[in-house]
């Protein structure tokens, strides 16, 4: 019997029941379920893993709950600068974009780059100009990405020489928004990157990751989300991986590729490789966050060394979406 499997994440960090309102938990659960459903509909009809991960990530980019697309944080310049990457495990080809400011779904622009064998990674104004040739890529103005919660997070630190995780040290905000109520708790933080990994019924793997980066980031800082082998990787011979965490540590440890390499060259299982990298290697260098991964047999691993990770999975063997938030 042909099988499929899909896993997603919406960020990791200090995510505790005590910091979550019922309304916010319900909102996250609904958003994650919608993302899984979008990808599952493609996979169960025989569609490709590549299209499934793009579809799942687009749903999360369209939600203000996650630090990607609509919910992207503000840079020190007061702009929303997004990063995304996607990789096909069958051909080991990839597409990535960074410092994107006017594309509604950066993951779809990354997919266009993947399809163009001239490039792998496009940045800034060049990426924006490249996107102009594709009518199907929806262009938006800066106000589309504006959310009051993200703006207030930036206002609290814009004059300081530091960058924040998307839920770190948020100021008090008097609003009925469940997102703002969550942020106003203070003391919690979250790496709001989103991602998806999938296995399709043809046995192909794919991975995709998208983020808005850090609040108040400067100097064109980039994280791991758009870097192939760091935040995203897929190879039919081993696994597909999408990461969420403090990008510098994931870059230095080439986390996504390392998990694949441990399977390919070290003979480890997906679980062994994921646990070794996330729970040992990253911990030793104070790297916090998590990964979602899937191997060519459809085994799924959702591993994180933080207090929680927004995550979900679904498969041909378990067709009802499974959502989890806390450890």
CATH superfamily: (Glycosyl)asparaginase
What is the chain-wise order of helices and strands?
A: EHHEEHEHHHEEEEEHHHEEEE
Strand content range: 15-25%
Class from secondary-structure proportions: alpha+beta
Distance between the termini: 33 Å
Tell me the number of strands. 13
* CATH architecture name: 4-Layer Sandwich
CATH topology: Glutamine Phosphoribosylpyrophosphate, subunit 1, domain 1
| Portion of residues within helices | 25-40%
Uncertain runs are: 167-188
In words, what does this structure look like?
This is Isoaspartyl peptidase/L-asparaginase. Pfam families: Asparaginase_2. It comes from Algivirga pacifica. The protein is an alpha+beta fold and 327 residues long. Helices cover 31% and strands 24% of the residues. It has a single domain (5-326), classed as 4-Layer Sandwich (Glutamine Phosphoribosylpyrophosphate, subunit 1, domain 1). The protein contains 9 helices and 13 strands. The strands form 2 sheets. Strands 1, 2, 3, 4, 5, 6, 7, 12 and 13 form a 9-stranded mixed beta sheet that branches. A 4-stranded antiparallel beta sheet has the order 8-9-10-11.
């Amino acid at each position: 019997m042909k099988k499929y499997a899909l896993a997603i994440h919406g960020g990791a960090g200090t995510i505790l029941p005590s910091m979550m309102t019922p309304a916010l938990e319900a909102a996250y659960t609904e958003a994650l379920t919608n993302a899984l459903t979008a990808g599952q509909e493609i996979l169960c009809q025989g569609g490709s893993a590549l299209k499934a991960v793009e579809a799942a990530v687009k749903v999360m980019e369209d939600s203000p709950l996650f630090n990607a697309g609509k919910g992207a944080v503000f840079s020190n310049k007061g702009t929303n600068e997004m990063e995304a990457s996607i990789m096909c495990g069958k051909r080991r080809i990839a597409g990535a974009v960074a410092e994107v400011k006017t594309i509604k779904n950066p993951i779809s622009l990354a997919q266009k780059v993947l399809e163009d064998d001239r490039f792998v990674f496009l940045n800034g104004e060049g990426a924006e100009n490249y996107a102009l040739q594709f009518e199907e890529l929806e262009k938006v103005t800066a106000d589309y990405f504006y959310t009051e919660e993200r703006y207030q997070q930036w206002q609290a630190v814009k004059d300081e020489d530091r960058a924040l995780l998307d839920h770190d040290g948020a100021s008090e905000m008097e609003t009925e928004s469940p997102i703002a109520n969550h942020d106003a708790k203070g003391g919690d933080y979250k790496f709001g990157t989103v991602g998806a990994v999938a296995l399709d019924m043809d046995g192909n793997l794919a991975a995709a990751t998208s983020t808005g980066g850090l609040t108040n980031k400067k100097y064109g800082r980039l994280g791991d989300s758009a870097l192939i082998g760091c935040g995203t990787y897929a190879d039919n011979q081993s696994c597909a991986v999408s990461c969420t965490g403090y990008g510098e540590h994931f870059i230095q440890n080439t986390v996504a590729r390392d998990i694949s390499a441990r399977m390919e060259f070290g003979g480890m299982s997906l679980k062994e490789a994921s646990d070794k990298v996330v729970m040992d290697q990253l911990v030793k260098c104070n790297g916090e966050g998590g990964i979602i991964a899937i191997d060519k047999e459809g085994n799924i691993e959702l591993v994180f060394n933080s207090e929680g990770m927004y995550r979900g999975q679904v498969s041909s063997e378990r067709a009802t979406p499974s959502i989890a938030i806390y450890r």
